[in-house]
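Need tokens for this chain, all 419 residues.
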Amino acid sequence: MTSDAPDNPSTPDVDFTRQLPAEVARWEADGIITAEQAEAIRNRYASDSPEAGGSAIGNRVVTVIAIMGAALIGLGIIAFIAANWSEIPKLAKLALMVVGTPAIYVIGWFIGYRFGYVRIGVAVILLGAIAFGASIHLVAQTYHVPVNHPNLVPLWFLGVIPLAYITRSQAVFALSIILFLAAAGFRAQEWVPELNSEDTILLLPGLLPLGAFLFAAGRMQARFPDTRQFARLCDISGLLVAAAGIYFLSFDELWWDIGRSKLSFNALTVEYWGMVAIAVIVIAALFAVAAWRDAGQRTGQIWWEAGAVGSMALVAAVMWLGLAFGGAWLWWVFNLVMLAGVLAMIAAGYRWNRAYLINLAVPIFAITLFTRYFEFGLGLLGQSVAFIVAGVILLAGGFGMEYLRRRLVRRIRESEAAS
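Here are the structure tokens for all 419 residues:
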């Protein structure tokens, strides 16, 4: 007597694992399961499917190794070409710039989507994205354009971001976010023409609209199954950028220097304020799309998200006003804002079952706390005593925060399992 059951009952059949992603997307769209639950289901069966070729941990290791290899090859190619640029024939230069990058993309596509080695293929495509940036800078060097020209990295970003959505690769999307932030940094040369002047501090409040834009983009992408995998990267990067702006303005010595200096908002160009205005308009449009996508569902969640972005905008306004009128006491305000933001992230993570918000809030709070300790502790205590006390606080505080973090994450997972 034969049986149709598989030899290993714990291993799902191929048809099931192929149909599951579409079914999970429908369950999530209908509100039956949350985004985190959908991701957990996909990861669970992706790791067991015959097509996955092993465990989830093994797949992650392969991905990390492949990406590291691609990055090292890209850096090696860039270093070799830069060191031998004058000796390379013009025809070879043209071939490298015009043919090289598309050839890498084609090779990555064949490896990943024709031969089935998706992770290796995506890593090769990531190498092509790096080579694309190198080609832009090599072309610029050919025409004697400076390497730090403010338009080169933005062009690199515009060429990579569509590739992230085409390949649906988180690695390529992460590179796009890095390039986006780097592009903003290079464009800062045009926002404050004299980069060595003290007026460059006026750029710091702009980190809040930048972080709010990334966070809003993440929240909008979380509403669509095809882009949901990129939402967390946008959320984390946006919150980190906003936290960086608040952190930089939480030092008391900085505000004392601001009070003694004469900052002028006339140093900021029209492009800077134009970019801030565009960010505000785009953020409003992104939340309009998110509200339309919700269509009456999860109204509480979108109010939380809109409140987070509105808070970033309010803090940015306070920053600009503080820089305009001074105030040595404002460092206290931004320390309290950082604490409020950390508590809000923990509350939102617990309320909406997002453990990564709690995992992000804990190190941000720890960095801020110990920065303040070393800022004031070394002056109040002897140097040796201060380091000993800091070590004790680090051990005890690290244990306490990790214990609290684990409890909160465990509660989130238990609530997910109960739902």
